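From the methods appendix. Each design record in this collection lists the tokenized structure first, followed by the designed amino acid sequence. Records were kept in a plain field format so they could be parsed without special tools. The example shown here is representative of the layout used throughout.

RECORD:
FOLD TOKENS (259 positions):
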């Protein structure tokens, strides 16, 4: 298998592990550790992965206006999407929200085809069509299921999907301006910049779990997410591949894994 395909497959597995466990600290641990604080922990794991990437690159961090603009825009898109996803998870079911947000490669594939002039193959087209159908089907509740409060969770989920998808396109579009390691560092730092927003969303009046089942369990759950984000950058930037290839593989694997 080509390198980009291996990286894409590994990142999909890591995203899946994170998605399966992400609700545990807030909804299955008492006292809970809210997802808003989970965002802070996630941003720290992003910095840890950024340090690992920079160490492999000899600690070479690029500067300049273009590098900063691309880097922080990528970071704010990813961090903002994550924060919106966490907000959606507070009001809606993870078994619907995670698959919907995970279909963000639909947006990436579309932008790659229109703005980067990458050709959409049969796999990419099939993945997009299946994904669009999946979003509709996942939002429909069967009779007898637990009622869901409102629809704001779906709006937050779709906004997160759009931000993640745009970020995927920008990762490839910024290839000539900065390295993968520099890009990921700025992305991680951008995530920290939205930390105050996550703190403002946290209800500190309720008992919070500060033990092993709180921040430490959250860190173990969020690290696969951060590592997967780094691997996706390497997959998108691989010289032998295209954003279209990696994104279509991501979205096809996601759709095939849906219940």
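DESIGN:
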């Amino acid at each position: 298998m080509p390198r980009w395909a291996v990286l894409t497959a590994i990142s999909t597995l890591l995203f899946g592990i994170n998605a399966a466990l992400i609700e545990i600290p807030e909804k299955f641990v008492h006292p809970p550790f809210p997802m808003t604080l989970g965002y802070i922990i996630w941003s720290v794991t992003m910095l840890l992965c950024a340090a690992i990437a920079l160490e492999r690159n000899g600690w070479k961090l690029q500067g300049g206006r273009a590098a900063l603009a691309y880097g922080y825009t990528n970071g704010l898109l990813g961090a903002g999407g994550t924060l919106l996803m966490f907000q959606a998870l507070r009001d809606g079911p993870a078994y619907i929200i995670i698959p919907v947000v995970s279909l963000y490669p639909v947006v990436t594939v579309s932008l790659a085809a229109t703005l980067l002039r990458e050709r959409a193959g049969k796999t990419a087209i099939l993945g997009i069509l299946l994904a669009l159908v999946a979003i509709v089907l996942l939002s429909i509740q069967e009779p007898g299921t637990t009622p869901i409060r409102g629809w704001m969770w779906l709006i937050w989920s779709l906004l997160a999907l759009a931000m993640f998808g745009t970020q995927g396109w920008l990762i490839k579009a910024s290839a000539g301006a900065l390295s993968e390691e520099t890009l990921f560092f700025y992305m991680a730092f951008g995530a920290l910049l939205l930390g105050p927003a996550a703190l403002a969303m946290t209800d500190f009046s309720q008992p919070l779990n500060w033990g092993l089942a709180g921040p430490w369990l959250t860190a173990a759950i969020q690290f696969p997410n951060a590592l997967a984000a780094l691997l996706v950058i390497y997959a998108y930037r691989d010289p032998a591949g295209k954003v279209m290839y990696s994104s279509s593989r991501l979205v096809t694997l996601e759709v095939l894994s849906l219940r």
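APPENDIX NOTE: Confidence is low (pLDDT under 50) at residues 251-259.
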